[in-house]
Amino acid sequence: MKYKFELAPELVPVLKAYTSQPAPPEGTPLQEVFRNNLKMMAEQVGVKSTDELTVENKYFTNSDGIETQLRVFTPLSIGSSLPCIFWMHGGGTMSGLPEQEDSTLYQMALAIGCVIVSVNYRLTPEHPYPAPINDCYEGLVYVSENASLFNINPDKIAVGGGSAGGLLSTSCALLARKNNKPKLVHQSLTYPMLDHRGITESSKEITNVGVWDRDMNLYGFSCYLKDVKDNIPDLAIPILVDDLSNLPQTFVAVGTMDVLRDEAIEYAQKLAASGVITELHIYPGMTHVFDALVPDSKAAKDFNAARISAFKRAFE
User: Fold this and answer.
1) Is pLDDT above 90 for 269?
2) How many domains are there within the chain?
3) What CATH number does the domain containing 200 carry?
4) Amino acid 20: pLDDT
5) Where do the Alpha/beta hydrolase fold-3 domain residues begin and end (predicted)?
6) Is the pLDDT of residue 262 over 90?
């Protein structure tokens, strides 16, 4: 399907400012550029505990013996055994940290009335597939098996994330189905990375918007798949999975000016065709991470409300 190639008017000045920033020193690896930017973002949006919600770091030991951070947001004064969202941050698999999404997760935890646990998984290219998904899935299992430690109901667990976090969320859902643990009630996929091949129309169209364009996306996937260039496992690239039945109900959101548009839409369609309750939202003129770029836009507000509503229905 052909979508109108036009940015939403409210994005134009924001993108102009975003893309006019000084270029990094020549030869700087792309992952270092993104890591520095997201570290600065984390410093700006990081939050601390308040009288309505606690923010704390807990840790588990992954299968490689590495202590792995879990950033936990717990609403106060609303009882015990709360629903839980196990969250995976974005960053193209090669950058990012839980704190970059603190303000979003703080507000979501309060609005939904749930605990949110964000995992600090290992980054590529230093730790390519399967290290990131292993950290995410092992963290998910740890949280579900230590429900009392996190004040959660193990029968009301969802997974979610944006961009690379969407990719890792789909893989966690597939692993949970394969291993029959934990029981998931929902997966929330915000402009998810799902296809490494760069063959969709949106991948060919979105080349110079300046926010996670084609070359950036292909580079991110090359970092993720560094050790599996041939015979790529379905688990690594969920769009390749033929059987998507018996997965949890799903929320998918993407903008029409996002390089990931078509793969997100295709995955939602495949889920629905497999009998999975699937909710798809497409935002005209919006780019990757539009909710962060223009948080006060109608599209961003509608998106946030729709995502929160989907979580609440899944937890009912």
Assistant:
1) yes
2) 1
3) 3.40.50.1820
4) 85
5) 85-290
6) yes
Q: Identify whether 8 is part of a domain.
A: no
SS3 sequence, the chain?
Answer: CCCCCCCCHHHHHHHHHHHCCCCCCCCCCHHHHHHHHHHHHHHHHCCCCCCCEEEEEEEEECCCCCEEEEEEEEECCCCCCEEEEEEECCCCCCCCCHHHHHHHHHHHHHHHCCEEEEECCCCCCCCCCCHHHHHHHHHHHHHHHCHHHHCEEEEEEEEEEECHHHHHHHHHHHHHHHHCCCCEEEEEEECCCCCCCCCCHHHHHCCCCCCCCHHHHHHHHHHHCCCCCCCCCCCCCHHHCCCCCCCCEEEEEEECCCCCHHHHHHHHHHHHHCCCCEEEEEECCCCCCHHHHCCCCHHHHHHHHHHHHHHHHHHC
pLDDT for 89-137, tens place per residue?
999 999 999 999 999 999 999 999 999 999 999 999 999 999 999 999 9
**Domain enclosing residue 174, as ranges:** 31-315
Q: Is residue 4 part of a domain?
A: no
Distance from the first to the final alpha carbon of the chain: 35
Domain assignment present for residue 147? The answer is yes
Of all residues in the chain, what percent carry a pLDDT higher than 70?
100
126 assigned to some structural domain: yes
Contact (CB, 8 A) for 251 and 310:
yes
Residue 174 has a pLDDT of 98
